[in-house]
């Protein structure tokens, strides 16, 4: 009788007007409401409801119309039975912990705001599906410039809701810092955890910023790599295999790598004020200004001070396969392992494998200049092998600049089949600035059309060589 009376009372109450909230405010309400409902209701009304057939994690069903009163009636708390059951103590049953008064106020505010939606799980798949659902509704003329950033992975079951407002503010600040512009971020989901980025607003949509300098092309063979593609090259989260509509359209959604969505917290950190990537991206955008090419950035990635090392994505597979090891060796017969060498001191690379492998190497100098490194052999057998640039010839490195020491890097790629030749690129910054320590930007990539092996499956090792004057 009490429930019937409650139904009649709430049915007679007028609906409150939905407040005018920002997308972030609405998104935070959705995330907090999901957290409260999952903690207090999902044990019985979750993935496998033990009582009733409604899951609080199924937002469409939870907010579906029902007679005489729906569980959640968006923008109408008096006509939302769920709130009544929580307030009068009918739910949760059996002495289970009840939501606090503040939590019930949060749920009421969520319903008042229109009960903005949330997914069953905040994960990378949800972010990718959200991105594609948004992308396919846009005009064909706009689609090539649209990319997506996500904070969805920060919402973790069993943990308190994250401060998404602070994370979003850091992301917006990073985009402004790297582009020099106030770049709009448009939420693509009701929870405001996935955002649409129009590269045109950041000046990151134009190519022909680089020339191919190796891989068989002439010096003035322009490459279509954009500033955003440079960011993608450093993204450390592994590429994923996507099926269905998303898989079919993925190459239209992404740039040089099959990454449909970039994690926003990673991007905010990668574009920190002192991060070399921030400077590189800003300097690349300068190339779009009419007139003589400007000078490149001062070497920062590996030059002087504590060595930052190559981008993490270059050696992301290091811990995955112990079949291949590499180290610097010096001395008579090149048997002494050492991480530091003197200027022009002969050294070799000792590589150890448990099976035959094919090799390819890059040499990343301390000033960031990158080139394909010739090796005396490109195939090794099981066991230890000493490698130099040519038969019976060791390596030697001359330090750059005025520092007491610099660190160069040998990036080794190994595979059971032939390793595809990478494309090495140099930005079109003015080469006359090099004597003033203003270098063009170097990058490399494995272009899919030329690949004989799947680059993500390559074994990668980075061997640092610190050179003391």
TrEMBL record:
The keyword Iron applies. Keywords: Heme, Iron, Metal-binding, Signal. Residues 28-115 form the Cytochrome c domain. InterPro entries: Cyt_c-like_dom, Cyt_c-like_dom_sf. SUPFAM superfamilies: Cytochrome c (SSF46626). Residues 1-17 form the signal peptide. GO terms for molecular function: electron transfer activity; heme binding; metal ion binding. The keyword Cell division does not apply. It comes from the Bacteria. This is Cytochrome c domain-containing protein. It comes from Urbifossiella limnaea.
